[in-house]
Amino acid sequence: MHDTRQRRLAAQAASDRILSGARPATMREHLAELGAGADLDGQPDYYGDGPVAALEERVAELLGTEAAVFFPTGTMAQQVALRYGADRSGHRTAALHPLGHQEVHERHAYAQLSGLRSTWPTTAPRNPTAEEISALAESVSTVVIELPLRDAGFVLPSWDELVAVSAAARAVGARVHFDGARIWESTPYLGHTLGEIAGLADSTYVSFYKSLGGISGGALAGSTELADYARVWRHRYGGQVFQPWPAALSALAGLDRVLPRLPEYVRHARTVAAALAALPGARVYPDPPHTHQFRLWLPHPAQALNEAALALAEKEKVWFVAGWQETEVPGVSRTEVTVAAPGLEWSAEEVVEVGERFLHVAGALRD
């Protein structure tokens, strides 16, 4: 597995053209990125001052909140957000989605470390509606909305639906928390600014490495009271890092250079998705995509598709779409497509042309 991963990374790094994702950066390239436009002669942070404080101020300004607190991981940040809601309300239950990050990707940290429990307003592959929140059978401290809901296909509610569900949560006495790890690219579909979106929530988590391309870390934004609480619990959970300034500088670089381009990524993702959907047996979801990421299905085994992606990259230096996984339907595989800066170079015709070669290779490997 390790050898396969290294081979994949090497092939992707050596590719001249990339449709999905981006060329993986080396440590030297990350360091060079930190030095571009940053005052490297200044003092590093010490437990969160300096560049970390500047980053927190920048995020609070973008989201229109009173404050923001840097966290080394999103798992820690979101657990603190849920704990805050429970402590303030006295209710140990949070309304989560079964496909949400807390349930799927955090090993149930909220339950194991904070003693909280969850209730699911819906199991449908979308965020809950206002009616579903109003119908909750028990009191909850926090309603979590993931923007976009990644494991449902990077799907977003409409703006009116988001306004309604936020109002419904407050009507039942709950806080609203946005898991906005990818909120940066949600503005085109929702048709509102980051500040207007975050203004519907009591707290918002954002990631600096998802979409923005930073090294690591994220922030929890909200009121000054939340920020004070978050700093205490960040320390208690072991997140009071001595000098996280490299992560802060890379996040600031992402806000400067990548954030303004995300609407362009989203627009072109719709072109790419339509072209991919034209391939034999292909299906994309959502159609059209809500963000610059979406799901793609093809009627081939995952192993054949992954081997085809690698073979195409090593032979032609073209990275198409990889990361294929089997589905519950035999012979049909699924992956996620991310249209970033390299993908902007692809026309719809080129997507179809390379896609057909890709499927030809996959078919030969399958046979």
From TrEMBL:
InterPro entries: ArAA_b-elim_lyase/Thr_aldolase, PyrdxlP-dep_Trfase, PyrdxlP-dep_Trfase_major, PyrdxlP-dep_Trfase_small. Pfam families: Beta_elim_lyase. It comes from the Bacteria. The keyword Phosphoprotein does not apply. Its cofactor is pyridoxal 5'-phosphate. SUPFAM superfamilies: PLP-dependent transferases. Residues 27-287 form the Aromatic amino acid beta-eliminating lyase/threonine aldolase domain. Keywords: Pyridoxal phosphate. Belongs to the threonine aldolase family. This is Threonine aldolase. It comes from Micromonospora musae.
